[in-house]
Specification:
Elements (H helix, E strand, L loop, with lengths): L4 E4 H10 L8 E4 L10 E5 L3 E3 L2 E3 L2 H5 L3 E5 H14 L5 H14 L8
Antiparallel strand pairs: 1-3, 2-3, 2-6, 4-5
Helix pairs in contact: 3-4
Organism: Streptococcus xiaochunlingii
Protein name: DUF7716 domain-containing protein
Pfam families: DUF7716
């Protein structure tokens, strides 16, 4: 995943899948927290550094006053599990799985 750019969540999901869910060295940041939306734009950047038990956000994130939305490692895990359970999942299905994980700290079950 290329960092230091703004992409829609749909573009991010497409890129992560194209990378075969392998590169998790990124985080998503946004102007607001809350539920993820397919068309909303998110900033892709580095993980925050931890200094004295506090997160220090990358300079590009801090300058734009953005909030951490999703860790790359978690995003990859959620997408991998969702696609394993439902290989033909739509982009909207994947967004729902990501939102479910954020709310419940567990993977969304897909009913066939």
């Amino acid at each position: 995943m290329r960092k230091h750019q703004e992409l829609s969540l749909e573009q991010i999901i497409e890129q992560v899948i194209a990378d075969q869910l392998s590169s998790d060295d990124f985080c998503l940041y946004g102007k607001e927290d809350g539920e993820l939306e397919l068309a909303r734009l998110y900033w892709v950047s580095d993980y925050p550094d931890v200094v004295e038990d506090s997160d220090v956000y990358p300079t590009d994130v801090a300058e734009q006053d953005l909030q951490l939305v999703y860790y790359g490692e978690q995003l990859i895990d959620v997408l991998a599990v969702a696609l394993e359970e439902k290989p033909n999942a739509s982009p909207q299905d994947l967004v729902e799985a990501l939102n479910y994980y954020q709310q419940h700290d567990s993977f969304m079950p897909f009913d066939d």
